[in-house]
Request: fold
Amino acid sequence: MSEESYLTIAEAIDLFLAAPEQDPLATPETHRTYRTALRAFLHFLKESEETPSPTGTTDSLSAGILRAFYVWLLEQEPEHAPGEKLSDATVSTYLAAVTSLLRFLELRLGDASKLTFTVEQARDRVGEVPTGRVVRRPPSRIPLVMTYYDKLSPPTEATPRQAKRRLDILRNRAILHVLYSTGARISEVAALNRTDVEDGHADEALIVSRKGRRREMKERHVYFTSEAQAAIRAYLEARGDRVSALFVSHRAKDPERRRRLSTRSIWQVVKEAGKAVGVAEIMPHHFRHYRGSVLLEQGLSLAQVQEVLGHESVDTTRRTYIHLDRGKLKADVLAHSPSPADLEREIKERDIFG
Reply:
């Protein structure tokens, strides 16, 4: 095949997205996700020094392209939730989009493939990547972050600025307690409503989310410690509005026009506390990992922690906390390992009293 017969990668993506038969099994929502995924793929190509640019031709792609894109995705953060990682469902969907693009180039643009490798070869390379993500353990000083706002005294003055500062401190205090207590994702905390927590009187809430390519509904319960409940009640009592969102911005002059706090704003609340106590590397997701670690150290099983954190499978929980799981396994094995002398003594006792 002559070089002129190859498309640029950017042109190939445009053709793929314009083709109605690009993926007959995908839903319209998935088609929209594919567009987003392929924008990410173009960004990856521009950013990476080891891959062709979007203006390169499709024959410059190698069989390792899916693998390289996968590794890159594992390090990306969602725009709406800085400090978090892309969900497993998002990574899978983005990979599926690029895989569909490659199949399109291999089979549907004339008699000859526009690639120099087969899609199956590319898919096989992805399997060479370790399935577990590199998990950055939460900072050991995270409790200092969690109690930072607890130690601040909310102003009592009645000026507008001081009143806003008072609400900010009470809200931020509640946010950190909820992040730790529930082990919830930052997006889940941002989406909470007052009715979900019964204005701070509920010790649990039901979180509903949609996951996977079929957007199946998933439910799980999260739990609020007494400290989290008290912090929520104090904040809502001081707020004095009827806005349904649990956490809101206090910038509006009319309390009833306050808007739900964004995930980016919650991220800033966490970073402010971390910077103040010298834990600048703190991120909202660290609260989630730390909660899981504490629960395991306190004796909960991996299956129980999986349920609390909402992992798709216990394998995800095991990979995330494998260092703790092994430590607990070692302690349990050694605690239940009688010596040879003890075992011999048991045999003799059975012979005597048997």
In short: The chain has a mean pLDDT of 81.
